[in-house]
Amino acid sequence: MPDTVTATEASPTGTLDGDYDDAAGYYTPGTPLIDTKAPDGPIADRWQNRKFEARLVNPANRRKLSIIIVGTGLAGASAAATLGEAGYNVKTFCYQDSPRRAHSIAAQGGINAAKNYKEDGDSVHRLFYDTVKGGDYRSREDNVYRLAEVSTNIIDQCVAQGVPFAREYGGLLDNRSFGGVQVSRTFYARGQTGQQLLIGAYQALERQISAGTVSMHSRHEMLELVVADGKARGIIARDMITGEIQTHLADVVVLASGGYGNVFYLSTNAMGSNVTAAWRAHRKGAYMANPCYTQIHPTCIPVTGTHQSKLTLMSESLRNDGRIWVPKDQADCDKDPRDIPEEARDYYLERIYPAFGNLVPRDIASRAAKYQCDDGRGVGPEVDGVRRGVYLDFADAIERLGRDAVENKYGNLFDMYARITGEDPYTVPMRIYPAVHYVMGGLWVDYDLQSTIPGLFVTGEANFSDHGANRLGASALMQGLADGYFVLPHTIRDYLADGPFEPIAEDHPAVVEARESVQGRIEHFLTVNGERSVDSYHRELGNIMWEYCGMERTEDGLKKAIDLIRTLKDDFYRNVKVLGTAESLNQSLEKAGRVADFFELGELMCIDALNRRESCGGHFRGESQTEDGEALRHDDEFAYVSAWEWAGDDESNQMRAPVLHKEDLVYTAIEMKQRSYK
Amino acid sequence: MNLTLKIWRQPDAASAGAMHTYQLADVSEDMSFLEMLDVLNEQLNAEGEDPIAFDSDCREGICGMCGLMINGEAHGPEVTTTCQLHMRSFSDGETITIEPWRSDAFPVLKDLVVDRSAFDRIIQQGGFISVNTGSAPEAHSVPVPKDDADRAFNVATCIGCGACVAACPNGSASLFMGAKITHLGLLPQGQPERDERVVNMVAQHDHEGFGGCTNIGECTAACPKEIPLDVISQLNKDLRTAIRHGH
User: Fold this and answer.
1) pTM for this structure?
2) Residues of A numbered 252-311 whose beta carbons fall under 8 angstroms of chain B's beta carbons: which are they?
3) A269-295: per-residue pLDDT in tens?
4) Where in chain B is the domain with CATH 3.10.20.30?
5) Are A69 and A95 in contact (CB under 8 A)?
6) Angle at Cα A649 formed by Cα A648 and Cα A651, nearest 5°?
7) Residue of B nearest to A273 (CA)
8) With respect to CATH, is domain A507-664 assigned 3.90.209.20?
9) Catalytic center residues of A
């Protein structure tokens, strides 16, 4: 849906009192981050120059160099395959039983690339421009330009691998317009683009495993990063079947471990998606950037009860023909929607945003749905005393276009909805509600995708760099593959050119410390023997995050959330109940470690949201809106990346105030503009 | 609804397993099958009994991680993944039997969790197109007829869940293998390695201990992605051609 691109533009408005700081006391100011290693010169030449300047490693030396890659989704599998082909020794890790299961597989829509096959005015510069603007001017210009630049190579690579993209009758690739963008630049494989791209990368990875350049450690989870003599040199992993704690050492470590949306408990992320790999690196010195930027999708299937384990996204294309409404009168909320007459319905998006109607951007549509439900006019089953759903009604579309036409356009989505809810959306209006879908925040990286720990590189959703405060549709897959196939292999060789590195021994103090930390935590969880399950804590944490750090954030709400999280976390460490042993497959133990890290991340997200006293993209601060209730950005004060440094914790496991380093965002190739949808 | 659940419990790969019986009350028909097991696990945890281990990840029907034999059927009574099966497919008072995938080539690791890495090793023997990163030609330089591309997509939708193997009385992985061989064989990019691919993948399949195919068709009936049985004919045809070519 239109994220920003078709919006009319107005000049920035509003200023803040610079002396006031909502987050005062919750953090310590740090030195600014100045060197992002981005090259100088015209933006179109920067990546070419960087690739040329990056030092080479001769083929005979590559096999003496070792690389650990954690996570084998689009970013990890593509990097592992490419670095394996180049002749490095690559060790990869994933928590699933096979790299083919990574959550990239669930992406439905498509992948953007500036191929301009439709000759409709697209170009590398336009994809760059749309992405920066879509991210509300909170992404780094150089990285985004490079993303757009290599996007065309991705399509060539995937087609050569046999990815069955949609084609026209002439045998050439088809494109569609996606996410409200006015050019057709999205390549797709029905509603399963993520699956097809991931299988392509997985097959390239399996080819290298067979060739012996890559070793795969599935059902392994990284639980600690080894930082020796100031450099990332390995990981501590747990074999999830035997429980064995293993040390894996290498010359460089890459995290491609995905996003952390599961901090909200309910999200569209896979059950196992977690923050532990990134968070453990954060605790060892990698800065966490823009953690509060969360993308929330308006068109998900609503929650039906407290048993709910995850949420399912339905393509936003549904908003092209569906009309969104709630009853005007609370008394009608439990009625059959077909018995509610037209005049008793509130088509609230059409009423408030007549120009865009049901096609307003995701964040606006999401917030508007929340307001209706908070106001007591939600529909569907009551969960914890509130109905959280609004109707997405196709009755008009079916009357106008005919049932067959609607079935042709949306049939698979209707079937999916019917399967999950047991209701027939052709005769009863669908119910939708917003859900957490993607996080734009992640570990801070420079232009080379290197974190603040030398030798630790971060790719895909696990880093922060390309999407700013909001991600355009069909851009997540593009970033994962751009990083893995085309960016990291060049930048990492410059780092590896410093090799051969001094080997480190298993009894190096940094290794011993990391292993002991893992063992200590496992032992703790298994010996607390309290009263509550891990899941019950995770659900409660998720409720706090969703309520106070979800679609709308306020100073009071965020401060309350921080208090609630601290209290709940304290209780978790004293009262969690994890049965079983450390030396076997133990899914409760796995979850306990992840939830412990989600507590700390959740608190940092709230502090970050408290610091950012503006609304932008996926971050809506109640205090920063126009008279019409629109998001109000403050470029004069907040055009920076928040990069948070870990400051340690105390004996009772509470975080000390983190240190905020700001990276100013400077735009040389693009002009900052305010958005408006009125 | 109230249910009686008979579930396979096995502490690890080396130990013997046995069926255990559990009672579960207040199951909502809106729960997915896996959410029903989540609720049972909360109950077991509270009672101090080790929760039941089972695999799942996306819970959207696409990652292929989940998979249970439910009342003797792979993924249960509907043509879907276990995560997309809902309790409204069952009735109050019912007894449900839940077991792990049945196949010697998928050894049980714990309770309902099995090891499907044999599938990855089959792919390693040729389930790919050999193209190094950066050496790909411009995408439009190789047109693919739309019908071929569409059919390649249809069979590329295999999620590698293993239901085909679990459902097959012979424990054959021919549907899984045939889907990949058909997908890559339909595309011009897949031709240079076509003979070698089928010979090597079939050899690995047999080496892993999967059984031979006798065209019973239980695989395609259980497949949540409805991969058609004719991919096995294609597999056999490609194998014959490869042998004729001297492989």
Assistant:
1) 0.96
2) 268, 270-272, 304-305, 307-310
3) 999 999 999 999 999 999 999 999 999
4) 3-99
5) no
6) 140
7) B57
8) no
9) 362
